[in-house]
Design a protein that fits this description.
Elements: H1 2-19, H2 22-29, H3 31-34, H4 47-84, H5 90-121, H6 124-145, H7 150-169, H8 174-187, H9 190-210, H10 217-226, H11 234-256, H12 260-278, H13 281-289
Helix pairs in contact: 1-2, 4-5, 4-12, 5-10, 6-9, 7-8, 8-11, 9-10, 9-11
Length: 290
């Protein structure tokens, strides 16, 4: 079950990285919290909970395959057209980013009832395990991303972005690498802002789950899952627009600097993602029934 879920998320991550929008990417790093069945990573579930979760997973994946993936294919077509016609510009990237954000919101709305039911079933020990796992999660992210001097954080962030981009367009030129470093430098303390915001949201979730028998529990969880921006820290909120604009400007510039070979590789990757989607048995089954 977990392998299927991670494969599903990986496909989405690939799509979202193509937009270059780090804010959307950050949202999907939160999928381990948005999607309820991955709470397996944070606490031990009993057999009844696991069986219930398996059935809900099947239902959600079936819904996703039959109702959402056709829209992703259209999204890929638009992306392909942008590359082929050399229209990878800020206007088009912002449009694709908005579409991806809406797709994420749709998933959040779909799985909210399952999240509410699952979280209400937890016992006190499981809630304590979840809280401890969140603390461990924060410590790990701090060790990986902020327990170094800022200049190293900037360099490491640039290297991570280069690695992601290389998977989609091939080896970057020196000019493109300089542009990536400029992008990373402009983000400054973004690593800290992201981790603090993530931990803040996790603490709100734990607080809500500790009061899971309260009459307004359903609404609290729904808001936490569907209106996440409402709960951003002030510092993260202030940095949001800059971070999103910086990412979109980066991709716009990199594509303007790209070689025919890089654009060809990007088109091949888009085709590969499309093939992965169209080869899903659930999508084929839906087409056959139609």
């Amino acid at each position: 079950m977990r392998i299927v879920l991670r494969g599903f998320i990986s496909l989405w991550l690939g799509l979202i990285l193509l937009t270059g929008c780090s804010q959307i990417g950050l949202t999907y790093r939160h999928l381990d919290l948005i999607i309820p069945w991955s709470l397996n990573d944070y606490l031990d579930m009993n057999a009844t909970q696991k069986d219930w979760l398996d059935e809900r997973l099947k239902e959600h994946l079936s819904w996703h395959c039959t109702t959402q993936i056709p829209g992703y294919l259209t999204w890929l077509d638009r992306l392909q057209g942008m590359v082929e016609t050399n229209q990878v510009n800020e206007t088009q990237l912002k449009a694709r980013t908005a579409e991806a954000r809406q797709a994420i919101a749709t998933i959040s709305q779909e799985i909210t009832p399952s999240a509410v039911q699952l979280l209400r079933q937890l016992n006190d020990q499981q809630v304590a395990e979840m809280q401890a796992a969140f603390a461990k999660d924060r410590d790990k992210h701090e060790a990986d991303f902020v327990d170094q001097p800022l200049d190293r954080q900037i360099r490491d962030r640039a290297q991570r972005m280069e690695k992601r981009l290389s998977a989609w367009i091939g080896k970057l030129s020196p000019v493109q690498k300089d542009r990536v470093l400029q992008w990373s430098t402009s983000l400054g303390e973004q690593n800290r802002l992201w981790i603090d915001n993530r931990a803040h949201w996790q603490s709100l979730l734990v607080t809500a789950v500790k009061q899971r028998q309260a009459p307004d529990f359903d609404n609290k969880i729904a808001r936490l899952l569907q209106d996440r921006e409402t709960f951003w820290t002030p510092e993260y909120r202030e940095a949001y627009d800059h971070t999103e604009q910086a990412a979109i400007s980066l991709i716009t510039d990199l594509m303007a600097q790209s070689s025919p070979e890089q654009r060809g590789k990007l088109l091949e990757k888009i085709a590969d993602v499309r093939k992965d989607f169209t080869n899903l048995s659930c999508l084929k089954g839906a087409k056959n029934q139609g």
